[in-house]
User: Which sequence fits this backbone?
């Protein structure tokens, strides 16, 4: 069988390795986490003479630099060196997409408030921070474009090509639809707020070598950027990361600036150099989730079936392209969520603005597209008087017909039509919806709302070439195993899952399989740990490496002990060789003496996928991950405050590689998604300065914001139809989307204000103020601006 | 009460430290990480909001060991004289077994990226030690309000905490006597005076000595809990050439009833004052004092510091103004009292002369039929800065006539301020719809709030008026009281359905 390598093993014994794949092994670092012994980059012992770096940031959103006087910075106590763009030996350029629009240090032109202008290196971090504030920069202000409205008004250029994704004739469809409506939804951005901020430590080696420990989700790209900036070949640059204190997409490209500046200083001074950003600098400098304005025009039938959809998705991209192109594309890829649009046209507007360069963030544009899709459903529900759940079911993708996406991919695995009713039953949706309405009828100040929303999330990088991975597995003579792979650990439990793959295959326990730091020196040319793909890609690469070694060991054992190869089997109690069972370590020692290689690299590339962005044709996703969430909220009509009372989630993780870790991703993803749509609000002032640049002003959910009742279940008996690693499904991003049910539930509560006659058109984030404004509008027309 | 010392003495774990050359504003976090190599304590925000740097400060107070979780990032080392600091590195038992909290966090998958985890563990250990903490969901919310996690959604951490609360004693229980002995031995009654290159530190022992120190050094900066001053240092990078630390001055740590009401000394923290405040200013359903900062912030920040710093968004002053609090000021031997609202002159300017300091505050005992309500409105329920804080005190006669209305707001002006026109609209009137409407109109004239990142002027004005409606709904003539706040409504709902 051609794909025997990648199917679940037929041997049932291998499935019962305690803690092996499909079991809830604890996070490989859990014991270290709780003791404070898990090392993050700033915790590593500093090489002697380590310099501490702080960037000097612009205080203008858009300006020409007339002069930059850094004398006072240089003369400040503790300062060893100050570097500007002129000191960069290679390219002053860190555009991750090769667009050449992102200088590492601004030279003549400042494009946003918070752009790095120079870097200070001092003997202590405190000295560097103080010195950085002494710069005297003279600016000549240029008109700044800060948001989507201004960008459109002023004809701001796009940072990326606009995409038009279409199938059928949307305009004709709209024209002939029995009913039609149009509207607009605004969706806010989001700060990643990884608890460990951006940090990198660069150590110079001999003959131009540079070793960079970086909190990066994409070591290979960081390696390339450092190489370009220093003008060195990649073989002199090693980038390593053991773990990150959170990433969420915020360290996919945004780690590069710190790494490159640290490498620059290390290279110039010959001393180790560390840049760990202060939280305020971090939030001021780095990109965030894109905020969107989405205009929709939808035609539908009196029965609530969608006939045609036309949408324009405009995003604030910030000053450079970064990953905005693929992010906005993914918003288009998900503007259908789980629904079939017979005739459809989706267009993107990736707008350039003088703000932070928005970047990857869990979901990568997908959640924004899905929010729009759910608004469309909601509009139809209000227009037809149907329960939104009914509208969702009537429009869910079919499996045999009504199953083609706007990008012409056939949905082969849709389960939305089963999942939604299953969750509705589990959580008594109908009954609770009626109870909310009953409560609202008699409640002057508080209103309850409930909503159930699905997610269908496409799994694979839409840039096809990223869908590859490598691994390197060593088995030592004592039978201990070291697993390396190209993915990075940011808390999601990727390393744990990779250990589990090796454990299961070799029949070993946790104490025998060790994961190491991710390093470009062991596994080269890797992809970012992003797009939820970490376990899918690297798991298969690890499996490939392990099975290569196993094949050699089986061959050796069969000949050494004179049994058939099919009589050699790796099990928890040892290696079965014919009738006897030997210790794994015995086998490895014997294999060593027989000169058998016990190290292998593994490789994987996702099959079946292809995508042509120019024609809008292909199969960008290997498969879809599904789920559904039901949220019930209560809102306060006097203040606009909200509380999430209860959440029920049913999520499809395929045959989960680790149910506990996957539930952790779902719970955490939900709360992060709910935070995005409620309390998390980014505010810039008229000068383009981000005013919410610290946790004192930017509010991510706290403990008491979690749902009071929070039931999360994995869909049972649902192995992936595709041959993924042990039939699991990716679980990083899809659950983030469950937060959309909160926005819809708040909207449902607001709708009670006019007897559920009008779609409240609630924008996000639904802060108390947004909710109160929407309530006022529903009651008495729009309130004044201000 | 003897002598002057030129060093500070404290323990970190079991290690004794005598520091003679310490910058008065050196933060505990930087000192632990940069000088002691204790990197288990993390820096997440450096402003006391995320809790990743949470450590325990243990003190012997009277004969009782008191455990406090604090944010090491805004705690100055100079404030630790006489204390024992415990960090995450101390949480394992000497035999290497994990603390029950650590064990529960591992078992319940309470960590993902792990960066916030040491801080959570410290708050959880402190929560187990805290006397009288509610052993329910709200108690856990309270205990963990000062720790942010971006990965887990908190659910597994709460599960771990529920489990850990059931676990038996920890190794600190067995060490309590030794810890007490050790801390007792540090008590020498000495005044501390350190002049280091980075600045001078004075720790007077009595209020009298403090008064004298400030007379002689009117430019010195008083620091009690450093929850505000800490940010001047960590974010503002300000130099404070002379710090006078008052947190441990026994005279200023007095709290208790007097003939006039409740007296709270200048060094009494929010956490210490909370129960007494709740008793004298009872508020059904929602305790606004619980929403001042977080446990870590309330463990360090003081009631009087929240007043003395003159912030327009401090949550304490509006409530205390509505309650008619009297501020005690002292300069040398000269003492004076003023109504709290008169202390705030304009933004950044208070009625305090050079060398003068806030010695304490008295909150008068409310008349028996006084209605007191205070509400905080912010984007996030816990550990947020108010968009608006409204506090109401009024007396209702049996016939519904309002007298002595005192209404104060935070977030509505450059200082905490009374709503005089609204008070006038209520005083002597019957509490009915017409009076409510008049008050709602008056409050629009009382304030011209600003728009900022927390809320717009429109929102602030609207909510200010709406809170009058809430007051009416809660305390007015209606027969049936209905819940008027989501927080109150939520308190009435059940526990988690799952594990």
Assistant:
């Amino acid at each position: 069988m051609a794909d025997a390598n990648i199917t679940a093993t037929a041997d049932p014994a291998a499935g019962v390795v305690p803690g092996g794949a499909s079991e809830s092994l604890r996070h490989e670092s859990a014991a270290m986490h709780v003791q404070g012994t898990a090392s993050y980059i700033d915790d590593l012992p500093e090489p002697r003479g380590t310099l501490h770096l702080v960037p000097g940031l612009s205080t203008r959103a858009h300006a020409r630099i007339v002069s930059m006087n850094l004398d006072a910075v240089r003369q400040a106590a503790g300062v060893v060196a100050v570097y500007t763009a002129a000191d960069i030996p290679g390219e002053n350029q860190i555009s991750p997409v090769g667009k050449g629009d992102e200088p590492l240090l601004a030279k003549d032109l400042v494009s946003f408030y918070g752009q790095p202008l120079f870097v200070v290196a001092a003997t202590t971090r405190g000295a560097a921070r103080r010195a950085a504030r002494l710069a005297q920069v003279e600016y000549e202000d240029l008109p700044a474009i800060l948001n989507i409205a201004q960008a459109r008004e002023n004809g701001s250029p796009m940072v990326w090509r606009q995409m038009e994704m279409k199938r059928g004739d949307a305009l004709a469809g709209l024209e002939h639809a029995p009913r039609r409506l149009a509207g607009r939804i605004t969706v806010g951005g989001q700060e990643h707020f990884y608890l460990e901020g951006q940090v990198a430590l660069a150590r110079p080696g001999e003959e131009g070598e540079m070793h960079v420990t970086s909190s990066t989700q994409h070591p290979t790209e960081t390696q390339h950027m450092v190489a370009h900036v220093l003008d060195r070949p990649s073989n002199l640059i090693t980038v390593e990361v053991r773990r990150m204190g959170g990433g969420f997409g915020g360290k996919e490209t945004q780690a590069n600036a710190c790494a490159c500046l640290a490498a620059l200083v290390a290279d110039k001074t010959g001393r180790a150099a560390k840049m760990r950003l202060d939280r305020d600098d971090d939030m001021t400098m780095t990109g965030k989730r894109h905020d969107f304005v989405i205009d929709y025009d939808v035609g539908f039938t009196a029965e609530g079936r969608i006939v045609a959809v036309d949408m324009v998705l405009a995003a604030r991209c910030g000053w450079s392209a970064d990953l905005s192109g693929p992010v906005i594309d993914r918003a288009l890829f998900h503007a259908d969520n789980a629904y079939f649009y017979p005739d459809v046209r989706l267009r993107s507007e990736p707008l350039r603005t003088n703000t932070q360069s928005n970047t990857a963030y869990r979901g990568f544009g997908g959640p924004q597209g899905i929010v729009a899709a759910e608004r469309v459903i909601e509009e139809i529900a209000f227009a037809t008087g149907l329960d939104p759940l009914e509208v969702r079911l009537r429009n869910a993708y079919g499996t045999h017909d009504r199953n083609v996406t706007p990008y012409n991919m056939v949905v082969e695995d849709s389960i939305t039509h089963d999942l939604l009713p299953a969750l509705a039953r589990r959580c008594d949706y109908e009954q609770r919806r009626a109870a909310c309405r009953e409560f609202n009828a008699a409640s002057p100040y508080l209103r309850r709302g409930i909503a159930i929303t699905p997610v269908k999330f496409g799994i694979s990088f839409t840039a096809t070439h990223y869908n590859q991975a490598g691994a390197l597995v060593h088995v030592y003579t004592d039978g201990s195993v070291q697993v390396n792979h190209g993915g990075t650990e940011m808390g999601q439990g990727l390393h744990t899952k990779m250990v589990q793959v090796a454990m299961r295959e070799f029949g070993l326990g946790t104490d025998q399989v060790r994961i190491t730091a991710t390093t470009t020196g062991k596994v080269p040319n890797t992809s970012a740990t992003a797009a939820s793909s970490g376990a899918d890609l690297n798991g298969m690469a690890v499996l490939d490496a392990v099975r290569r070694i196993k094949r050699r060991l089986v061959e050796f054992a069969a000949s050494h002990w004179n049994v058939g190869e099919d009589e050699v089997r790796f099990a928890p109690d040892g290696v079965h060789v014919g009738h006897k069972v030997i210790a794994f370590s015995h086998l490895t020692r014997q294999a060593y003496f027989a000169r058998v290689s016990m190290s292998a690299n593994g490789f994987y590339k996702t099959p079946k996928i292809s995508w042509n962005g120019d024609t809008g044709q292909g199969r960008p996703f290997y498969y879809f991950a599904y789920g559904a969430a039901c949220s019930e909220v209560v809102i306060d009509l006097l203040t606009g405050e909200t509380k999430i009372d209860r959440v029920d989630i049913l999520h499809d993780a395929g045959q989960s590689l680790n149910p506990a870790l996957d539930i952790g991703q779902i719970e955490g993803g939900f709360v992060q998604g709910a935070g995005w749509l409620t309390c998390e609000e980014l505010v810039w002032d008229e000068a383009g300065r981000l005013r919410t640049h610290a946790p004192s002003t930017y509010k991510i959910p706290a403990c008491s914001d979690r749902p009071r009742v929070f039931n999360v279940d994995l869909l049972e008996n649902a192995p992936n139809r595709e041959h993924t690693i042990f039939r699991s499904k990716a679980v990083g991003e899809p659950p983030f989307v469950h937060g959309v049910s909160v926005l819809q539930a708040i909207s449902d509560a607001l709708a009670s204000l006019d007897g559920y006659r009008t779609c409240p058109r609630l924008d996000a984030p639904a802060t108390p103020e947004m909710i109160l404004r929407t309530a006022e509008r529903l009651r008495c027309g729009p309130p004044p601006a201000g | 009460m003897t002598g002057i010392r030129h060093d500070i003495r404290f323990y970190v774990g079991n290690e004794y430290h005598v520091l003679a050359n310490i910058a008065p504003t050196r933060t505990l976090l930087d000192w632990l990480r940069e000088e002691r190599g204790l990197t288990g304590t993390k820096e997440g925000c450096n402003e006391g909001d995320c809790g990743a740097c949470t450590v325990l400060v243990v003190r012997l107070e009277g004969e009782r060991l008191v455990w406090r979780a604090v944010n090491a990032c805004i705690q100055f080392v100079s404030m630790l004289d006489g204390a024992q600091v415990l960090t995450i590195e101390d949480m394992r038992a000497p035999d290497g077994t994990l603390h029950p909290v650590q064990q529960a966090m591992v078992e319940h998958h309470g960590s993902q990226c792990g960066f916030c985890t040491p801080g959570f563990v410290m708050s959880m250990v402190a929560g187990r030690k805290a006397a009288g903490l509610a052993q329910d969901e709200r108690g856990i919310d309270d205990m963990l309000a000062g720790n942010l996690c971006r990965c887990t959604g908190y659910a597994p951490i709460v599960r771990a905490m529920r489990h850990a609360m059931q676990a038996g004693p920890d190794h600190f229980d067995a060490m309590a006597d030794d810890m007490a002995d050790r801390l007792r031995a540090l008590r020498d009654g000495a005044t501390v005076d350190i002049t280091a290159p980075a600045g001078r530190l004075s720790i007077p022992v009595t209020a009298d000595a403090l008064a004298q120190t400030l007379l002689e050094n009117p430019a010195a900066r008083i620091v009690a809990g450093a929850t505000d001053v800490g940010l001047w240092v960590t974010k503002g990078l300000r130099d404070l050439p002379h710090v006078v630390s008052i947190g441990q001055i026994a005279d200023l740590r007095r709290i208790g009833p007097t003939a006039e009401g409740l007296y709270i000394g200048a060094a009494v923290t929010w956490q210490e004052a909370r129960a007494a405040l709740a008793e004298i200013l009872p508020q059904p359903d929602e305790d606004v004092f619980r929403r001042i900062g977080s446990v870590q912030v309330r463990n360090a920040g003081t009631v009087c510091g929240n007043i003395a710093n003159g912030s327009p968004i401090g949550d304490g002053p509006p409530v205390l103004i509505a309650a008619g609090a009297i501020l005690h000021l002292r300069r040398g031997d000269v003492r004076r009292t003023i109504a709290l609202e008169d202390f705030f002159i304009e933004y950044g300017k208070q009625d305090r002369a050079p060398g003068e300091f806030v010695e304490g505050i008295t909150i008068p005992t409310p008349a028996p039929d006084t209605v007191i309500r205070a509400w905080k409105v912010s984007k996030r329920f816990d550990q947020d800065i108010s968009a608006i804080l409204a506090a109401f005190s009024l007396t209702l006669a049996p016939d519904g006539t309002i007298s002595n209305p005192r209404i104060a707001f935070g977030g509505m002006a450059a200082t905490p301020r009374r709503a005089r026109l609204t008070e006038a609209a209520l005083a002597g009137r019957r509490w009915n719809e017409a009076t409510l409407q008049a008050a709602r109109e008056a409050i629009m004239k009382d304030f011209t709030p600003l728009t900022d990142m927390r809320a717009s002027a429109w929102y602030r004005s609207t909510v200010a008026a709406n809170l009058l409606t809430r007051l009416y709904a809660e305390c007015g003539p209606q027969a049936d009281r209905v819940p008027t706040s989501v927080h109150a409504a939520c308190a009435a709902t059940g526990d988690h359905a799952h594990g």
Observations:
- Chain B touches chain A through 99 residues (CB under 8 Å).
- Chain B is about 30% helix and 20% strand.
